[in-house]
């Protein structure tokens, strides 16, 4: 008997497999294809011959923990205690899984805002708890009336994703004020804030839960070095949480992975002395603008993109197909892979929108855009 009877192969795996089979340009899965910063690869090459290959402490490499605390302070003005409020994880997905396993109990309810990333639901179900899926508005702003109506005495957690995958939306000041008011009414709710794209925002500055005084004792923050430093395959991220929550999270973490890849932790610790996270947003803003310019001649309608490295586009003027079939057709007939947005909705809501990843080198974006512009 399956513990996850309704969950099958992820859409990301399906589309990437099809992209390989049909030799399509893969703009589906969210990973960069350009070279990693040579400063970072040089550090790894140097460390490979040093004594950094054994287990590190369960919470993380102490110098890296100290530097993350400085990073959080510099980025958001928040002082954290690296020994008690910080945990290095094997990527953001493990961070999310571990947090939910530690804090959610049987028959609890967890509110997930759709469209939502697919790693949120499974750990809730494995806790014998229930997900309550609440749709965002069609412009992908939160519908706080619906969210509040979904809250009850059983609600244990609300998961927010900011900047938002797949839509690229970011939360504003008003959103946080309403969330804070909601938490006052429901003092048992914890917020899990997935902020893996925190340094990839454009015209508007990202407002982090780190900056909200009223949230700090009620919130677990998830970050990703893989996303920030273009090393998604390293699977390394971190959690920030108040000590009373972190104690519970560490209990699960130690039996799930115990400790995280040693050489990557040491490498990132050294790399943080050389790199500025403030450069990341401007780098991806150029990518976003270039990709949008390339698609101006196409029949796709591009949605606003405020953050992340994803561009959502409407194909409504091109086809009546549902978005899953359209994405398969796009691979087979035109050699470009994208992700259908309906798969991020529990009810399969289909607005004829698909997601492209523009974290690619310019040659890849140009080749993909040429094919997309040719579709009539």
Automatic annotation (TrEMBL):
Pfam families xrefs: Aminotran_1_2
Transferase in keyword set: yes
Domain spans labelled Aminotransferase class I/classII large: 24-372
UniProt KW keywords: Aminotransferase, Pyridoxal phosphate, Transferase
Names of required cofactors: pyridoxal 5'-phosphate
Presence of keyword RNA-binding: no
Protein name: Methionine aminotransferase
SUPFAM superfamilies for the chain: PLP-dependent transferases
Residue ranges of coiled coil: none
GO cellular component, as recorded: cytoplasm
InterPro entries, per database record: Aminotransferase_I/II_large, Kynurenine-oxoglutarate_AT, PyrdxlP-dep_Trfase, PyrdxlP-dep_Trfase_major, PyrdxlP-dep_Trfase_small
PANTHER family membership: FI04487P
Gene Ontology molecular function: kynurenine-oxoglutarate transaminase activity; pyridoxal phosphate binding
Species this protein is from: Flavobacterium xinjiangense
Family, as annotated: Belongs to the class-I pyridoxal-phosphate-dependent aminotransferase family.
